[in-house]
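Q: Joint fold for the lines below.
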Amino acid sequence: MSAAPHPSPGRETIATMNDARSDLVIVGGGIIGLAHAFEAVRRGLRVQVIERDRRPVGASVRNFGHACITAQSGPLADLAMRSRVGWLRAAVEAGFWAREAGCLVVGRSEAEMAVLEAFRGDRGPEDVQVLSAEQVRDQLRGASTEPDARIIGGAFLPLDLRVDPRTAAPMLADWLAAHPLVDLHWGTNAHSIDSGLVHTNRGTVRGQHVLVCVGHDLDRLHPADAERHQVRRCTLQMALVDQPDGYQLDAAVLTGTSMLRYEAMARTAPAAELRAELTAADPELMDMDPNVMFTRRPDGTMIIGDSHHYDPTADPFLDERISERLLAEVAAITGADRWRVRQRWQGVYAHSPLTDLLVTTPAPGVTTVTVTSGIGMTLSFGIAARTLDRL
Ligand SMILES: Cc1cc2nc3c(=O)[nH]c(=O)nc-3n(C[C@H](O)[C@H](O)[C@H](O)COP(=O)(O)OP(=O)(O)OC[C@H]3O[C@@H](n4cnc5c(N)ncnc54)[C@H](O)[C@@H]3O)c2cc1C
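A: Joint structure:
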C-alpha cells in the first residue's frame, strides 16, 4: 500500500471527521488495533483510529502481559518472533515497561517433565532450558516464602517477553495520539462499515482501507463472519495480589495446566499422558479449564489466573470458588501462606474452535483481524506487520 498525500499533518477534532480521509482507518483501540497503527505509521501511512471507549479497557489491559513467544508452533511461531521485535521497538518508542524477562515453567510431576523434555527436543536447548528443582525454587523464592516442595524441575524460556498490561496499550495509544500521522478518536462507536467508509456515532470516516480490530465484538459489526467461524466470548477470572515479600521474578510463571494450552507444549507426545494425569488427580480444577499462571507487575503486585468459560454471550458473574482455587494454586507454588487481594476482574477475549487467528474480508478494502485464542498480546505486532505487508 502506498501512502496518500497527507492533507494536513496534526490532529483533527471529532467535528471535522466527516471530511477526514486517510490511508487506513482502524476500528478498535486495543493492542491489535494499536499495533497495526504503530506499524502503519512506520511505513508513512496516515491513520485514523476509532475507539468507542475513552481509553483501552478491553482484553489488552486485563491480561497477564506475557508475550508467550517460545510456546507457539507452526506459522504462529514465526508471527510470534516477528511480534517480539515489534514489541521491543514499540516499548522503546512509546516508553512503556517491557522486559526480556523470559518465562519459567514449573514441573511438579514426571509427566510434566516429559512434556518439557519433548518441548526442548523440538525447540532446542537454547530456547527451552531445562532446569533442576533447585534452580526453579531459587527463582520463585521470596524473603520468607519457600516454594512448593513438589517441584522436581522446570524450564526457562529466555525468548519470552513481559510487558505491564495496565500501561503498555495506554502508553502506546498516547504515543500514537501525539504522532503527526495519527488521529485517534476516543469515545467514538463504529456502527457499520462499507468499503472505505466507517460510519460512527460522530460521523463517517473515509480511508483507502479499513481494518476492523474489535476483538470479541466482531459479531456486532460482522455477524456473518463471526458465526461462520463460531466466534464466541471466552471469559477468564483474574486477581491482583501483593507479591510475597522479596519475590523478584519478572519472568512469567507457567504450570502443568499451561502445558496443555500452548500449542508447542500441548502437541508433544507426553501431553496426552499429562492431561490424563491432571484430570484424574484433580477433576475439580480441570473442570475450570485452567491455565494456572502468574506474572509480576513493575509495582510489585502480581496477576494471578485463570479459568476459561465459553459462551456467545459472556456471563457477568464471577464464581468465588474459582477465584479462591486459583489463588490457592499459586499460593502453593510460591509458598505464600495468604494473599492480600487488591482486585478481581473478568477478562473477555474472542475464541473460535476453528482457528487461532481469524482474518476476513467482508467487503473490498475492509479486513477484519481477530485473535481467536488467548495469545493476542503475544502475536499483536507480528500480525500487524504481516497485515501491512499484504495491503
Ligand atoms: C484475562 C486474560 C489474560 C490474557 N493473557 C494473555 C497473555 O498473557 N498473553 C497473550 O498473548 N494474550 C493474552 N490474552 C489475550 C489478549 O489479551 C487478547 O488476545 C488481546 O488483548 C486482544 O486484543 P484486541 O485489541 O483484539 O482486543 P481488545 O483489547 O478487547 O480491544 C478491542 C477494542 O475494540 C473496541 N471496539 C469494539 N467494538 C467497537 C466499535 N464498534 N467501535 C469502536 N471501537 C470498538 C473495544 O472498545 C476495545 O477497546 C489474555 C486475555 C485475557 C482476557
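Q: Anything notable?
A: Confidence is low (pLDDT under 50) at residues 4-16. The chain has two domains: 14-60+167-229+354-390, 103-158+232-351.
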